[in-house]
Amino acid sequence: MHRLSLGRAARVRGAVRKTRDPVLFVREEGVGEPLVLLHGLASSGRYWGDLASFAERHRVIVPDLLGFGRSAKPRNAEYTPAQHIAALRPALRQHAGGPFRLVGHSLGSLIALHYAATYPQDVSTLTLISLPVVGGCAWGHGLNGSMGGWHRWSVHSRSGQQVFNAGIRLAHPVWERLGPRVRRDVPPEATRDNLRSTWTSYWRSLEAVVYGTDVPALLVRLPMPLTLIHGTADQLTPLDPVRTLARAYPNVRLIEITGAGHNPYFTHRDATLASLTDSLN
Predict the structure, then answer these.
(1) How far apart are CA 192 and CA 115, in angstroms?
(2) Which helix (H) or strand (E) holds 170?
(3) Which of 4, 43, 120, 254 could lock 246 by a disulfide, CB 3.0 to 4.6 Å apart?
(4) 33-89 per-position pLDDT tens digit
(5) What angle do CA 92, 102, 118 make, to 5 degrees?
(6) Among candidates 158, 125, 4, 127, which has minimal Cα distance to 71?
(7) Which CATH number goes with the domain that contains 126?
């Protein structure tokens, strides 16, 4: 495991340079062709659990995204796709060293999509699990496009952030014990990391990435193969819009996991691993 400093903070040949840049926590395991796994909203790299299934054939690189898990959570960040990518790319360039296979789940699938569209030379294949397709909705905004007062205060004001981040800190010890019992569709370790994010990183990432991404506009920019893996019973990110994408774009292949919800990697592991192996070959 590595805690990677970004930008001017990188440790170079024994010299440490001072920085204010954010830091990402990165887990790495295995040898071979690099494979990057990106987790979803309010989760961490621990979502992917034991990496042995991948590590026999790949050097698996698993970062905690900006604002989540053990990575830095800058208070003033807007957590836009561009900011997530700016934090992510130096980590991936250092650990992967060259083109890599990229897999993302939920929020991580959108960040992976933005990354592949922005830096296609870095990505050899792209696989997206439980891709949210909700672009065009203005989260926290009214019908006239203006931001709602509650959303503006709770998510975008310092006082609102302080109040709700304090609440998250108070709830953390209780969630450590009760979370894995409540959320049985997610690995216990990743469930415990739900409250390692902040109110700010959660809601701003939801607003800027999930509700702010125009998925079709990014798909037309992809030169590499794209595989979508989606559960047929996913109620959080419904399957129908994903089916529409797969029919509309010839470079998109859809693999449906029958009966799976939003976390097929955990609830339908064998089928999902087989689909991932297929997409990575």
Answers:
(1) 27
(2) helix 158-182
(3) 254
(4) 999 999 999 899 999 998 998 998 999 999 999 999 999 999 889 999 999 999 999
(5) 70
(6) 4
(7) 3.40.50.1820
d(CA 102, CA 98): 12
Enumerate residues 6+ apart whose C-beta is below 8 A from 116: 102, 122, 123, 126, 222, 224
- Alpha-carbon torsion, ordered 106, 111, 114, 120, to 10 deg: -100
Q: Are 115 and 87 in contact (CB under 8 A)?
A: no
Q: How far apart are CA 74 and CA 30, in angstroms?
A: 31
Q: What is the pLDDT of residue 180?
A: 60
SS3 270: helix
Q: Of 66, 69, 79, 72, which Cα lies nearest the Cα of 45? A: 69
The tokens 């890599």 sit on which residue?
Answer: 100
The token pair that represents 192 in the structure block: 């415990």
d(CA 168, CA 154): 13
How many helices (H) and strands (E) the chain has is answered by 11, 10
- Cβ-based neighbours of 135, under 8 Å, separated by 6 or more: 211, 212, 213, 214, 215, 216
- Give the count of beta carbons closer than 10 Å to the beta carbon of residue 59: 19
User: If you search the block for the tokens 């891709």, which residue do you land on?
Assistant: 131
Could you give the number of structural domains in the chain? 1
For the whole model, what pTM was predicted?
Answer: 0.84
Structural domain including 242 reads 2-280
Tokens 């959660």, located at residue:
202
The Cα–Cα gap between 71 and 4 comes to 9
Residue identified by tokens 């926290």 is: 140
Strands 33-38 and 100-105 turn out to be parallel
Whether the per-residue pLDDT at 111 is higher than 80: the answer is yes
